[in-house]
Amino acid sequence: xxxxxxxxxxxxQIKQFSPQDATTNPTLILAAxxxxxxxxxxxxxxxxxxxxxxxGDDLIxxxxxxxxxxxxxxxxxxxxxxxxxEVDARLSxxxxxxxxxxxxxxxxxxxxxxxxxxxxxxxxxxxxxxxxAEALENExxxxxxxxxxxxxxxxxxxxxxxxxxxxxxGRILDWHKKNSGRxxxxxxxxGVQSVTRIYNYFKKHGHKTIIMGASFRNTGEIIxxxxxxxxxxxxxxxxxLEEMDDSSFTLQKRLxxxxxxxxxxxxxxxxxxxxxxxxxxEDQMATEKLSDGIRRFAADLRSLEEFVTKKLTEYPEEQHHxxxxxxxxxxxxxxxxxxxxHK
Length: 343
Hints:
Blueprint: E1 3-6, H1 11-17, E2 21-23, H2 26-33, H3 39-51, H4 56-76, E3 83-86, H5 95-111, E4 119-124, H6 127-138, E5 143-148, H7 151-159, E6 164-167, H8 169-180, H9 190-204, E7 210-213, H10 219-224, E8 230-233, H11 235-244, H12 257-261, H13 273-282, H14 284-314, H15 317-327
Parallel strand pairs: 1-2, 1-8, 2-3, 3-4, 4-5, 5-6, 6-7, 7-8
């Protein structure tokens, strides 16, 4: 009915729920990198960047990218499907910079023996991000367009033939609760309505882009979106769903391609940059949440960079050159617990 994707970087929890895919981001990586059982992944990233001869800011960026890839590789050993690795959110308005960074991340995976068919490059759904993704998809690099709050962001992604989009259900609900002063339950939930509209539009018009609902606040939202292509769900909510799954409760399919095919849904015409920017600006919630999301992702990355900078001073350089002889291929899966990434 729906493919479940783990919203965590905790390998132990991933094993417990056997999801198809998993996503990572700087917040999750920062939380995990501070755990002793993951220290070898950080050591390896530092060795890698130093051996490359990187200096200054480039050294820090190289460590962060390699660290993200090291976590991604651990997750790929556990999940059968995709792992998402994020491009620096500070490149959200830089098409060429995003393309360049995505190619670099893919090369890191390829050099470690993982083909690009299992990696999703995660990019914010700005106009520049969508155009970068369009170019990357033409090179066979799959993209996950995130921070998607508005209908026209979704349509632009579909027209760019991106592999997957992550509409943020819970953050849409948060905005409407705050701005209206009331709660929304079940199918009234504006986040649920947003993903339902995108799903029906994509299926009606034959768009192949996968819709992966994200950032859930309660099981009610998940129940209302049963049938959506994929849902990325935090372990706590997966546990609640598992506990509900008894004789008194059966999960019903709410979204279906067949139903969408029978609907009258006009096709969006001529969605160029001007129209995209206008429609996004008309949508106050999407405008505010996109900009807020980019700022948060950038802040998370700065925290990760500060952590890496501190660690670089703790690990003397000479020691690392020696260690690299033996250490850098040593990727054993370990367990950590580092929570929910779409808050």
